[in-house]
Every structure is written in structure tokens, then in C-alpha cells.
Design a protein that fits this description.
With 387 residues, this protein is mainly β. Helix content is 9%, strand content 35%. β7 and β8 form a beta hairpin.
Length: 387
């Protein structure tokens, strides 16, 4: 189908979005391609710019982008993250992140869990909602566990690549760091860091649902940057490691049911057609603010949406977003970081930013174009008013 024919097919779909469409309808396959268009939200009491990126199936997929390619690697605009990522054709801002106070450098620690390419990159700081990007689903938490087998002893891992301590979360437990982590490992009185290297594997040591073998290298009380192929474990409990001699082998197992590509957000707006639950104390969701959304329609189409505005002044409330998503036949959606972080990049340019210039963020949600064979992808831009 030509680009112009696909554009007309998309307009036909949009003219019917208020009515359910079956998966068997010819309109479902007619939306194949990447589409970028502004949406008029006046019927839903949204008097702010709305932009939407959508695609239906291959060769497009969603991926997680990190500022400067690292966990806690600082802050970077979504457009810059996209431009530095192979095959990236569109991006929006990702999960919420910690903002440092005073003059302290801001490493941009994400709030939720992060998995990319089946590698667990970051465990959540607090209970947080998540989106499974491969299975088009959302969840109220991030399910994971990890343990290091040292002889007959199993040592539970309490966090992976987390910037600790942070407000409300002290420096405690057994913490694991890989080369994906940009900062040096934490230090404190009575705490040591045990260093290991990967043995006989090309996969990341925190690949999910697959055990890897590590070789013990030694212990240090100082902070270190973890090099490629190494693992550092910071703990105040040396007992489990007391018997280790240099060269000894241990086994690391990281397990998760969250899928291979996962990002955090808040709140769940709709899940399988059922509206999410927002606490009355979560007042920000009842204010008009800029919003960033990832969701999936009843047809299996992926949609990324930004609603513009200014914090507490203009944008959309949770209920207004729910009405808009239902009009688009979105059955599952998670809100990402919004407010002044809200931004969208597509078609080789910044389509929207809630500030005069894009706000740098710690993570971005990327649209990747990775065809199995060399093809030419078409981006179509249209404007629509929803019924």
C-alpha cells in the first residue's frame, strides 16, 4: 500500500475511533506504518496541544533509552537520546526520576524498575506502576528477585544499580552493580564491595531468568566504577563472603516476570478497558497538567501521547485523559512522567516540549525501526478532530 493510501486508511480509522473495531477488520492492517499527528481535544475539554505517535506491528517496536547510555548517567533530552540510539525514529520522556537538591550533581535515578533487552538494569526505589512494552500490559508493581549462590549459602540481592542512599531509602542490604551503572559504588563505615568477573558468557550478568557464573576477584572498602564484564556487590554483611578465595566461582540468578522491556510510570489510567484507581490524595492527577502516555488499542496498535500545557494551569486531568483514550479505543495505558518533562520527538524534529526547550530527563521511551531486511519506512503526518 502506498504512503498516501495508508494515510487515507488512517483517517478512516480515526473517523471511527469512538466505535469498537474488530481485529479482523481490514482497517486493522491498514494502519501499518508510523504515524504522527496532532489531535484536537476540545470535545474532551482539553484546550492544550495534543500529539500522538502510533504504529501497528513490525518493523516498529518500543524500547527504553537511558541518558548518556547509562543508569544514573545524568540527564539528557529525549530527542538527544533518540538521535544517539540506532534505529530510533521517535521518542517521549520516560519514567519519573530523582531530582537532586542544591548544587549536587543530578544523576537522574529512575523511580521505577527498568528492563531492556531482557537485562534488568534498575530495580524500583519504591512501589511503582510499570508498563511491559513487549506484552502491551501494565502492572501495579515490579516483580523480581536475585540471589548469589556462594557454596551452600544463598545471598539475597536487595537492589540492582540503584543510587543509594536516597531520601526515604537508606544505604542498607546487599546491593549489586554492573557496568550499566554510571556512578561509583556507595561506601559507608562497615561496608565492603566484593568484585567479580563474568565467566564464559557474552550476556549481561543481570539477564533475567538465566543463571550466570562469576569469578571472585577481591574486596575493597573504597568506591569503584564497575568496568565491562564485572560485577560489584556492596554489603555490610561479610559473613557470606568470608570463605571466598580469589578465583572461586559463584552463581548469580536474576529472576523477573516483567518481560524483556519494561519501564515505570504513574498512574495506570486504564487496564484492559477498566479505569485505574487514583487516590483522592493524589491531587496532581486531578489538576490540569501536561501529560505523557503510553498505551495500546483494542486493535493492538501502540500509541504514545503527549498533552501540552503548564503545571497546575493547563493540560489535562486524569478523567479527561481517560475520556480521550477511550475515544481512541485505547484499552491499556500508563502515565509516564509529565509536567515540565513532557516532550515528543518524531519525524526528525521536536514536536512538543512543555518548556521553552526540552527538559533533560533520565530515561526516554523510544520507537525503534528495525526491519528484518533493508526497507524504507514512511512517516505520515495528519491532523484529526476526534468525534
Amino acid at each position: 500500500m502506498s504512503a498516501s493510501a495508508r494515510a487515507l486508511a488512517v483517517l478512516a480509522v480515526l473517523a471511527l475511533v469512538a466505535a469498537p473495531l474488530s481485529l479482523g477488520s481490514p482497517l486493522a492492517s491498514a494502519t501499518t506504518g508510523l504515524y504522527v499527528y496532532p489531535v484536537v481535544g476540545t470535545p474532551y475539554n482539553i484546550d492544550a496541544p495534543i500529539h500522538l505517535v502510533s504504529f501497528y506491528g513490525a518493523p516498529f517496536s518500543l524500547g527504553v533509552g537511558l541518558a548518556h547510555g547509562k543508569v544514573d548517567g545524568g540527564l539528557e533530552t529525549p530527542s538527544a537520546i533518540c538521535r544517539s540510539t540506532p534505529h530510533c525514529v521517535a521518542a517521549i520522556n520516560g519514567d519519573y526520576f530523582e531530582v537532586a537538591s542544591g548544587k549536587k550533581a543530578d544523576p537522574g535515578d529512575p523511580v521505577g524498575g527498568l528492563t531492556s533487552g531482557c537485562v534488568l538494569l534498575h530495580t524500583p526505589e519504591v512501589s511503582h506502576q510499570q508498563a511491559d512494552l513487549d506484552n502491551a500490559s501494565v502492572s501495579t508493581g515490579f516483580s523480581w528477585n536475585a540471589a548469589l549462590s556462594v557454596g551452600t549459602t544463598s545471598v539475597a540481592i536487595n537492589a540492582i544499580n540503584q543510587q543509594l542512599p536516597i531520601p526515604g531509602v537508606g544505604l542498607r542490604g546487599t546491593l549489586l552493580y554492573t557496568s550499566a551503572y554510571a556512578l561509583p559504588t556507595p561506601t559507608a563505615a562497615g561496608r565492603s564491595t566484593y568484585q567479580f568477573k563474568e565467566v564464559g558468557t557474552a550476556v549481561s550478568p543481570t539477564i533475567i531468568n538465566q543463571a550466570v557464573t562469576l569469578e571472585y576477584l577481591g574486596r575493597t572498602a573504597g568506591a569503584i566504577h564497575v568496568p565491562a564484564g564485572r560485577v560489584a556487590i556492596s554489603t555490610s554483611n561479610p559473613t557470606a563472603f568470608a570463605s571466598l578465595a580469589s578465583g572461586a566461582s559463584v552463581s548469580l540468578a536474576v529472576n523477573s516476570t516483567m518481560g524483556c522491556d519494561d519501564i515505570g510510570g504513574h498512574p495506570i489510567i486504564i487496564n484492559k478497558g477498566v479505569p485505574g484507581v487514583v487516590s483522592p490524595s493524589d491531587t496532581a492527577e486531578y489538576d490540569r497538567d501536561p501529560r505523557t502516555i503510553v498505551g495500546w488499542t483494542t486493535l493492538g496498535e501502540t500509541v504514545l501521547i503527549t498533552v501540552g500545557g503548564r503545571d497546575g494551569v493547563s493540560g489535562a486531568t486524569w478523567n479527561e485523559m481517560l475520556s480521550l483514550l477511550r475515544a481512541l479505543n485505547v484499552q491499556t495505558a500508563l502515565s509516564l512522567d509529565g509536567g515540565s518533562s513532557t516532550s515528543m520527538y518524531a519525524d526528525g524534529r521536536s514536536l512538543y516540549s512543555a518548556r521553552a526547550s526540552e527538559r533533560p530527563v533520565s530515561t526516554a521511551l523510544l520507537v525503534l525501526d528495525e526491519p528484518a531486511t533493508s526497507t524504507t519506512s514512511t512517516t505520515t503526518t495528519t491532523t484529526t478532530t476526534l468525534p
